[in-house]
Structures are given as C-alpha cells and as structure tokens.
Amino acid sequence: MMRRRFTTACCSALTLALALGTTACGGDPVTAAGGGGKDLAGKTLTVAGVWSGAEQRNFQKVLDAFTEKTGAQTRFVSTGDNVSTVVGSKIEGGNAPDVVMVPQVGVLQQFAARKWLRPLSEKVGKSVDAGYAPVWKEYGSVDGTLYGLYFKASNKSTVWYSPEALDQAGVKPPRTYEEMLAAGRTVADSGLPAFSVAGEDGWTLTDWFENVYLSQAGPEKYDRLARHEIPWTDPSVVRALTTLSALFSDDRLLAGGRKGALATDFPGSVEKVFGPKPGAGMVYEGDFVAGIAATEFGRKIGEDATFFPFPPVGTGAAPVVSGGDAAVVLKDGRNQEAAMAFLEFLATPQAAAVWAAEGGFISPNKGLDLGAYGDTTLRATAKSLVEAGDSVRFDMSDQAPAAFGGTKGAGEWKILQDFLRDPSDPAATAARLEAAAAKAYRTANQG
C-alpha cells in the first residue's frame, strides 16, 4: 500500500541521521542512552502497548531507530484494550514489560497508586519542560512526580470524509452539528449511508459523547464531569445523550444501521469510507484515521481523504478534544537502563519524526519541525493541537479509572454501546453511567 511520506530529501536525511547520529531534518542530533554509541548492545527492551496493525508497524520503526542508535534489541507486546489487566497479570507473573505505552490518564494514575512506576529521569523532565506545553506534564504527573511521557497525541475533534461522496450528494463540509446531520441525510438520500460508526469499539462512542458534551456544556462542566465532581445524571449529560440519540436512532444515517455499527470495529469503520468498496461517506474519529486511510487503502490525504473540524453544537463553541499515549517505566521491568534511555529518546523531536513520516501520528513536542509530517492535512491538525496549548481538553474517559473509562465490555464503553443499540432513554443511560462511575471512583480512591 502507498505510504505518505515527507520529501525524499528530508527522508534521506532522517535515515542517515538514525544510522550515523547526525542531524535529522533540521533538528538536533539523535541521541539516546547518554549520547550515542552502541552502549546498550546485548540488552532487550520489552515495550507493551495497545497498538496493532498499521499503528504497530509504524511504532516498530521508532523501536528500530532506537536499536540502530543504541544497539538494544526491542520486542513489542500488544495488550489489546485492557492495558491495566494485561500489565497487572504480567507483573504478578514475574514477566513485566520494561515500558508501557499507556493510553489513559486514569490508568497512569492507577499504575502510580499501585507503586508500579519509576519516576522519569531528570533528562526526560528537562526535555518535557523545554518541548511540551505544561498541560502534557500535568497529565503525565501524579502528586507532582513525572511518571509519563506523552509521545503520541491526537486531535480527536475531526470528521473524515470522502470528497467524492459529498460532491455526489451536492453537500459541503458543515459548519454546525445540526448542518452535519442534515448533510448526512442528504448523503443518505443519494444512496450512500452517511456515517460509519465503530460501535464494536466502545471507546469511539465515548469520543462522540465528549465532543458533543464539551461543545454543549462548555469546558468548566467538562472538567468537573471528568473529575466526577458532578454526577453523570446531571441535566447536561442527559442533554448531550439526547443530542447523540438523534444520530444513533436514525438507521438511515448509519452504515448497516445500529446493528451494523455495533458489528464494526475502528479499522473497519475507516475501511467503509476509504476502502475499495465504499459503504459510507463520513467517519468520525481522530487524526489517526489518516494513517489507516493512507497506509491500508492508498488514499491521498487532503485530496481523496480529508476532514472538517467536529462542528459546534447549538450555540456552543467548536470542541477540541485530545488523547495521547504516555510512555511509563515499570519498576519490575528487567532492563531499567534501557527503559529510561528509550524514554529519553522518545522525548526528542527526532524520535517523533520517525512516525510523523508515516502518517496517523501527531506529536505534542513543540520541537518537531512541522515539515516532518507527510502531508498538509496532518500538518494542519498537528499545528492546531500544538498551538492550542493548555486550552486543549484531554479525552474524558481516559481521565477516569480504567474500570469506568477504559475497559472493554464494562463501564462507559459498554453502557454507550447499549445506548447505541437502544437510544430511546437518555436519562436511564445517564443513571447507568453514574452508577458505574461512582463504583469505579470509589474503588480507585480506596487504593
């Protein structure tokens, strides 16, 4: 499949830099493990994370760059969505990975509370202070101690679409949420379902909710709900669920209807829009949609696959929701030196440039040259996220205890899947969400 890259000259410079330790694409020399050389030869670093498919292959290029620089061999272990459960079992079994790429703030906090994590080195801390907006250090810290380095971020307020599908229906990218639903109905009337919804993966449904809620309720309420300072039975939650029900209850708008949506995972939702047999005109998710559309289906980002910002709901402002994967070092890992050296490497713009070249990736590191991104569309999403600074709101479910916001078949993921199956009673769904949240937060606070 075609892979979107930045210019050949810059790509060649990056390859040479990784091999020889010289300058990559205008940045500083690639350094790790105390300044270069094969000083970790003979070590094997085990890294665990949720990624699979194209994301795993692209991250492997980052691991390969670390190996080329330091001599350390690497092994990636895919955890699936249940990171907390898988990592906990490995620790108990005496087979802990050295580094975990944690996709939820709540899981990072849980790991820290269980004394599983090693504080990051002074070198990592200085890199974060110099290259990241303060919000990213805040999300990576627990009680003032830095445990997590956010290597991969995402702009989760993007709706991706096929320009051909919208052109054939005679509609333009909408400016409001209400216009988006109206445009979807017009697309459906033209013979193509409007939205491909990945209901099999409950986390995508939390993202739908969060964008609607942030726009309708505003950032202050969003922060309070994220901290569970207001209950999920609050009228603002019921209102957001009611707004979502207008989409979820209209089978014309959903590829395969609600039943089809519940049987579609995230990669499958992208395939329905950008695959060889299009089955929908639009798919909502983060900027990482582009990586799959380009890598798996040969789409040219910005031309036959592009996006519009998630539109504002009613009189609210357009939402900007982000997510991210933080690298943490486990105390029980067998290769502490290699693990910390790897995080020191991940904190450099050059490490981020490796994945940025492949697409489906945004770095929160301000030091990464925007020219490293392989196309103007991703460059724009990266620029908007970095320039948003501390005004970005982190994915709400990722801030919750894993039992509520990050576990397959349980908590918010399961309840919103049930809501997609039957969206007729938003108030009852809100009550179920509050019961699950209260239990999860109570358990988390008890240790």
Explained architecture:
This is Sugar ABC transporter substrate-binding protein. The chain has 447 residues and is of the alpha/beta class. It has helices at 8-20, 53-70, 83-92, 105-113, 122-131, 134-139, 163-169, 177-189, 202-217, 219-226, 235-248, 257-262, 266-274, 289-295, 336-346, 349-356, 376-388, 396-399, 402-405, 411-421, 426-445, and strands at residues 44-49, 73-78, 99-102, 141-142, 145-146, 149-155, 158-161, 282-284, 306-309, 321-329, 393-394. It has two domains: 8-155 and 323-393, D-Maltodextrin-Binding Protein, domain 2 (3-Layer(aba) Sandwich), CATH 3.40.190.10; 158-321 and 400-445, Periplasmic binding protein-like II (D-Maltodextrin-Binding Protein, domain 2). The strands form three sheets. Strands 1, 2, 3, 6, 10 and 11 form a six-stranded mixed β-sheet that branches. α7 crosses α8, α9 crosses α10 and α11 (235-248) packs across α21 (426-445).
Compose a concise summary of this entry:
The protein is of the alpha/beta class and 447 residues long. The protein has helices at residues 8-20, 53-70, 83-92, 105-113, 122-131, 134-139, 163-169, 177-189, 202-217, 219-226, 235-248, 257-262, 266-274, 289-295, 336-346, 349-356, 376-388, 396-399, 402-405, 411-421, 426-445; strands at 44-49, 73-78, 99-102, 141-142, 145-146, 149-155, 158-161, 282-284, 306-309, 321-329, 393-394. It has 2 domains: 8-155 and 323-393, D-Maltodextrin-Binding Protein, domain 2 (3-Layer(aba) Sandwich), CATH 3.40.190.10; 158-321 and 400-445, Periplasmic binding protein-like II (D-Maltodextrin-Binding Protein, domain 2, 3-Layer(aba) Sandwich).
